[in-house]
């Protein structure tokens, strides 16, 4: 088992870090809101740190799942960022949905400091994180990904290296383009069902067992009906 850090305990990161702890890894977490980190430790064990730098100290793998490019830069190369605490040979795995540009930027910075950076955005939503069945699309060096993959497996049913640095984020863009079309179609279909006077929930429960079925239909239709 490995000594790992997890930065960012939002709706995705909180359960992902929990799966790492459950798998037997030694986990130290960091969250901008310290109360959330304390809650995680109470629920799962492990430890919390006051800064990303402190969390990353001595870790073989540092995982992050934060909000955007700026948040990612703050927790990596900011004044108390993880890059200032990581040791040579360590691997930073970023699960944030961010830009390919920032992934390549941080890949270069990490390499110059003697450790590795893998961009590894995820798909599967909160339910996928809670159930440990996320899909991970990665960019970076093959040798480093091969080291990280067994650890990532604690919360993913599919993890694949797509190509060099930035390829993970570009693949996530492909994923989002595909989803956008499906969500638009689902919204139009539900609107039509309502306008036709149909029981929208009954309609979805029926057609979701046929060719129209999709992850978005199964997981998003209720909020669309309510909204």
Your description of this structure?
With 227 residues, the protein is of the alpha/beta class. The chain is 51% helix and 18% strand. It has helices at residues 13-22, 34-44, 52-56, 69-76, 100-113, 125-131, 142-152, 167-195, 200-207, 215-226; strands spanning 3-7, 26-30, 47-48, 61-64, 91-94, 116-119, 122-123, 134-139, 156-163. A six-stranded parallel sheet has the order 3-2-1-4-5-6. A three-stranded mixed sheet has the order 7-8-9. α8 (167-195) packs across α10. It is elongated. The model has no long low-confidence stretch (mean pLDDT 97).
Which descriptors would you attach to this protein?
227 residues, elongated, 9 strands, 51% helix, three-stranded mixed beta sheet, single chain
List strands and helices in order, with pairings.
Layout: E1 3-7, H1 13-22, E2 26-30, H2 34-44, E3 47-48, H3 52-56, E4 61-64, H4 69-76, E5 91-94, H5 100-113, E6 116-119, E7 122-123, H6 125-131, E8 134-139, H7 142-152, E9 156-163, H8 167-195, H9 200-207, H10 215-226
Parallel strand pairs: 1-2, 1-4, 2-3, 4-5, 5-6, 8-9
Antiparallel strand pairs: 7-8
Helix pairs in contact: 8-10
